[in-house]
Amino acid sequence: MAAIQPRISVEYKDEATIVAFTDEKILEETDVRDLREAVESVVEQASGIHLVLDFRHVKFLSSAVLGLLIRISKRVYEREGELRLCNIHPGIHEVFKITRLTNVFEIYEDVDSATRSFSEQR
Amino acid sequence: MAAETPVRCSLVVKSEPSALGRPCRQILAALDAQGFSQDDIFAVHLALEEAFLNAVKHGNRMDPTKKVTLEYAVDQEKVEINITDEGAGFDPRTIPDPRVGANLYRPEGRGLLLIAAYMHTVGYNAQGNGLRMIRYKGRPTPEAGKASIG
A12, A119, B35, B107: which could form a disulfide with A67 (CB 3.0–4.6 Å)? Predict the structure, then answer.
């Protein structure tokens, strides 16, 4: 596993790129800005990325992170890629439900099912 | 276990996002001491972060010369938090619902919805620069679909 920035880790599995957020809490605008730069640097590496964002470590986030995910999603799809989210803590999943972002993002239970979904849709 | 003494505090803090750190830890510690659940603590933490950031960013417009007044009271039944900025105020009824149509794809505008969803009572002062919010211990978070902003 290669650490690109302190706040994310990047792993490659099959044809997917798995980016895990390593912070337990993501709050301030500076955190969000750092994360955006870190994740977008991964997205920009190649077009057509199969990106999985892994939230296994994240126990708390603010609405600014939801905005970050929208921005990342737009960039991924502009570059003809696909995005999945996974390992979302139940408390945070409630935040996605309240904001109806469950209708925007494809959310999977774990990395395996998220990764598998890319090949299943072909 | 003996009942914890209610906690009441009023603070004036710098208008910058990081200024919430210490007061937030104090409030969450008071909730823990009064026996609030982890779900309650998550809810109050989220609402507090959203409300404070709104005060700094939209109320005081990131002006470092301005302040935010933070008042809180925690007892065995509930937590009440008041946050007032030095801005001109706003009418929450004018804020678009972020769950509808194209708003769903906008990066911003979900803070008030989350506050309304996670706190049981939410109100604004007449000027619109002061927010009062209450959460009762052990009472479930209102159903997601029933939360409204204004």
Answer: B107
